[in-house]
Write a structure and sequence with these properties.
421 residues; alpha+beta; Rossmann fold; 8-stranded mixed β-sheet; 5-stranded mixed β-sheet; 15 helices; elongated
Amino acid sequence: MSERSSLVRGMRDLYEDELANIRLVETVFSETLESYGYALIRLPIMERTALFSRGIGEATDAVSKEMFTFDDETESLSLRPEGTASCVRAVIDANMYRGHQPKLWYIGSMFRHERPQLGRYREFYQVGAEAFGFSGPDVDTELIRIVQDVWESLELAEEITLEINTLGNTPSRKQHRDALVEYLAQYKAQLDEDSQRRLEQNPLRILDSKNEQTQKIIEQAPSISDYLDAESRRHFDEFQERLVRLGIRATVNPNLVRGLDYYTHSVFEWNTDKLGAQKQVGGGGRYDGLCELLGGAPCPAAGFAIGVDRVALLRNELGLASQASSPDVYVVALSDDEEDYALQVAAKVRAASSLSVRVHQGAGKVKARMRAADRSGATIALIIGAQEAASNQVSLKWLRINREQVTVPVAELPSTLLNSN
């Protein structure tokens, strides 16, 4: 007997109901983004490792600890841990923002070598959007409005909160970083192990530490608000004012820094208290220097990414999960002699409507075929015996409600089905 091949740790097979819930989340994002004029872009799941180390930052956890990386002959390649760097690379390659202001969205698998747990997987699904060529906070608030529209469509608006902050422009961020390092250096021995490492490599991430002792230390740490220049303060003030005008509630969290190096000015995160430790369902912000850092011309930009898995999980926790779809119609030939006619009937219904039609396959007595129709979850069974086939008709049997069975000509079948409710 051959050895059974098992699933790779941190990966998942998605079946019926779980997949139906994920597809609903993806569909709502797709429809909402396209209603705002964002165009879909397909990005590769594999890039040169240098793209992520330069774009995201070598000291970030995503690059230093979590990427799936391997050597391919003469270069190092990695599975994408996030979508922004790839999207920026694609825009630069196609010279898309020369004289244009592209708004793009993408969806697909991301990969991080994390400890698997509920809501955290090594292959996970994200939907993201990026807007290029816009320097003002109007596009920042548009991105948030898009996501708010999605939360409302998915009945999650009251379950997800928005936190915002500013990291200022590059000079403001550098001044704050220097002051933060100077302050924290005094307490280095008291910081948790991760924070000690980050003090040398990525000190802003210490502000997001969950360690209780480190949290007490950073309570008195220098705040970015004390280092904002006039431009940065004006950008953040207008950002907040626009959110108020849109009726979007947001809480300013001065310790919100995001986990990636490319952010400038506004940053934001969406959180929930319904998923335990996996509270964050998405985030984003502005990254005005990333295009230039990756070899393109200077271009202001902003974007977001949402964890589709966690949004679907949240809906499930709230009892809102979608169920796997069933066919609308089940076509039953009562004997093998009517099978060809049954296939023709099914084809006519599909061509004339958007109904999902399943045809019975496999032998069986009439009772067995009707049981299969009922188990399929279909609303209506189209029953075809010798008499129906000879007269070019079909019998309709309602499977979920008590309604008298009727026989109709095939020519009238699509309209009858569409009006059957």
